[in-house]
Every structure is written in structure tokens, then in C-alpha cells.
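Troubleshooting log. The previous structure file for this entry was overwritten by mistake, so regenerating from the original sequence record. Sequence copied from the archived sheet and checked twice against the printout by T.R.
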Amino acid sequence: MRLADYRPPEFSADAVDLSFKIFSDHTVVQSRVEYKRTPEGKGASFLILDAQSPNPPGQPYIRSILRDGQKLQSCESREELDKDRYFWDEEKDRLYFAMPSGTDTIALEIQTHLEPQHNTALSGFYRSDRCFVTQCESEGFRRITPFLDRPDVMARYRVSLEGPLDLCPTLLANGNEVEKEDLGNGRHRAIFEDPWPKPCYLFATANGEFDWIEDHFNTMGGRKVRLRVYTDTRNAEKGWHAMDSLKRAMKWDEDTFGCEYDLDDYGVVAVSKFSMGAMENKGLNVFRDSLVLASPETATDDDYQNIIDVIGHEYFHNYSGNRITNRNWFNLSLKEGLTVNREQLFTAFTTSSALERISAVQVLRRAQFPEDDGPNAHPVMPPEIRAVDNIYSATVYIKGSEVIRMMKTMMGEQKFIEGVKHYFRAYDGQAVTIQEFIHSMEAVSGLNLSGQFQLWYTQSGRPQIKVRGNYDPEHSTYTLEMEQDVPVTRDQSEKQSMLIPVATALVDEDGNNIPFRLNGKGPAGERVLELSEKKQSFVLEGVDRP
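Regenerated output below.
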């Protein structure tokens, strides 16, 4: 897969209607979607959906397909396609429908058969002990129903869940619960509507035997949001630290970035089997239980801190990732780098900025430096990947956060916060790229971040800086000579000098700041120097002592 090959979707989907009927040994999913041709799809002969079976070999996945109310038959190749047939290329996980010239819409009803107990990949809809749960990022939704499984297709979802009361007494999905009904015969149903468009990787449902704790949060706009932490039936009381962390995160995001929560309910679901640490599904986060549950008898200080960090991280995705998502997976750091940065700001606020910074640098050195220094070196925005899962790396997450932190260093904290707010306002409800985020930072700060600075996103490796200082008592100057070197990496043999902001202060032997001016300009005190050349000198003036 190459970033250069990205093309906008040829078809869009504005609304998705899903129905799940859960049984002990299988689940039947019915999807109803109307697809519309986009300007980019003007000459497209086919609607192509992503479709991958999660079932064991030999077990059916696609049960039936209706096109505009008429049942379709399968065929053996694209050449045989017409409006009465579909072709499923199981080797390439693609489902084809003929779209003759003049046909701009197509309404599809697709029924799939799932066996969640056999879905050991934990991608799509699977069973985790006594519950049925989903994991759709990055390409799991296609294992539930065929769809345009890409982040730049955003739709509103209506979800009907039906299951046995003894097996699934609790039914959960994204959005607001709008209907609940006892169907008799030991079964019940719940219907959820999410009014906010989202990509399918943010779809979630969790169904099973849960216990929960409940609290409420009053938003800055006066709305009362119901908060629940769902656990297995033995551990609900261990969820209170997670609940407190969630409320603190919601308040901090309002106070700092003006981000108000936008649904009636917010759920945190803790499960024992989960392929990722946590997942920011809109309004229904799913976590590995070790990142939610804690008690003084068994949890360490680090355990409690991890819960604060991860609960905050997933909540902050509601704006930096959900309301605004990445256009394609090459831009994953758009949501993850920014959200890691927001998480770090929150942690610094709730604990200590010094301790948070020490911890963040330790993680950076332990997890990300080996990537930059080894054969897996890659840019924050890689130009090419073999599989989407490969892009989930410390470079994309942690280094991506550090790049944003450098923007903050250059802009100043207040301008940075204004820039993030500008980004949230300008691109709400859209799937965009890192470039749009940079544009917001530029619009507020007046800085040029689209030129040399953008090498931090496109160039791999870590620059090495050598610094030498020389004090001139006759002229009361201190000259800093800086030299940068960007080592060659396996993926890039030619490197360019980078724009590196260097926060600089002079300190005497007692730890007191020594005032100075830079080239006769600016106030005395700490300054941010911008190293942009291979070698560069900075003269600090008015330095009255060495």
C-alpha cells in the first residue's frame, strides 16, 4: 500500500442500519445501506465493498444480498456481473456489484452469518468469555458485514441488538439508546442511534452479562451525561478509579480545549480478551480489563496511573479521532500523535508536569528510539506499508506526539491551545490529513510549518545535535555553536537538515537564570532557538557572567 496511490472514495454511505440477532452458537447480521456515487466515481463500473469472512474454513459468511429489494445470485467473475448478480473475490476480500452508466445509487441489504466463538483473531465480532464484543480498528468491520471499510467514509448508524436474556442481559452499542423491548421467549431487543457521522472502524457493540457502576457528568452546556463502567459480575467495585479518571478527563477537556461531550451516555467496557489495550469507539470504549480495574489490595501506583492515562487518552479521541478522523491510515498520527499529546498534557495537570515529562521521555527512549535506530526506522507518516497493522508503531504514536510538542514549543502554550481549537472547529465531521492540522497551527501562530518543519513527518531517523558554548567576557556574549546530523536509515539514504526548536536558558552555579538577549532582540530570559541548518551559531548578548 502506498500513500501516493490514495484516491477519494468512488461511493459514499450517509446512513447505516444494522441488525444483530445473537444466539449461543452464531449471530445473524443484517445491514441496510444506500450507496451513492461521488464525483470521483463518475466513471466507475463497479461498487467494490470490503468483505472478509471471520468464520472457520467451509462455514458460510454471506448468506443473502438484496439489491434495491431484489435478491441477487452470485457469479464466478467480474466479467459475468450484471444488476442481478454479485461477485465475491474471497482471495482479495472484495465484493463487486455492477454499476452501469446512469446508475448513481444502489440500496443493499446484506445478511451475514457469524460464529463469534471461533473468531480467534479478535477482529470484528467475537466472544470474550461471557460477552460478545467488537474490535473494528483498523479493518475489522468488513468481518461483520461487507462495507466501504476505510476511514474517509463517515456515516450515521442505527443499530438493533437482539439476544437471549440469559446469555446477554445487557445490550450495548454506540450512540443513544432509543428503544428497549422484551420480545418474549426469553429474548429482548435494544435499539441505538448515533447522530454523529463516524467511520466504520469506530463502530462498537458489547453484549453479555455485565455488572456496572454508574455516575453522571454535567457538561459546560448544561447537559447531564450518564456514565457507566461495565465489568464482569465480580469486579464492578474495582472500576471507581476509572470512573473518577473519566470525569476528570471530561472536565479538563472542557476547561482546556472547550470540548463538550456530545451524547447522552458514555460507556467504558472492560473485557478479558482484547487485541488492543483500549479502543475509542464513539461513546462506547472497550478496554482490556487490566486498564480499567484496580483495588488497593493488588494495584500498584503505576497501575493507577496507567488507568488515568488510558482512560483520558480514549476519551480525548472523541474530538481528536472521532469527530475529526484521519483520511487514510498513512495519516494515523493525526489522531494518535495529537491524542497522546493531549493525554500527556492531562497527566501533567493531574499529577506533576516534571514527573510526566520524565516518564514520557523514558517511554520515548525505551520504545521509540530503537525504531529510529534500527532496521524498522520509518517516518511518522510513512509513504508505504505492507499491511495497515504495521503502521501502529511507537514512531507514529510517541514520536508523532513529540513533533506536536515541538510545535507547542515554537508557538507557546496559549497559541498552541488556540491552534487545536481552530482545528476542531474548522474540520469537525471530516476525515482529513496531517496537513490540515498544520494549517490550523499556521493560521493561529503565523509560523511556517509546511516547509522544512514538515520533514519531521516525512523523514525517518533521529537527528543528533552537537552543542559547543563559548563565553566572551569582553563583549558579554555567549555563543552557542550547534551542528546537526541526521543518520542514514535503511529506508532513506539521503537526508535533509531539519528544523529543530531548542528551548535555551543560561543557568549559574546556584541554579539561577542568567538573563540574555538574542541578537539584540526580544526580552531577557529563556528563548527558543531554531536550528535549521547543518551548522549554525547563536550569539546570546548581555550575559554578565560566565
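Residues 353-373 form the longest helix (21 residues). Archived copy saved in two places this time.
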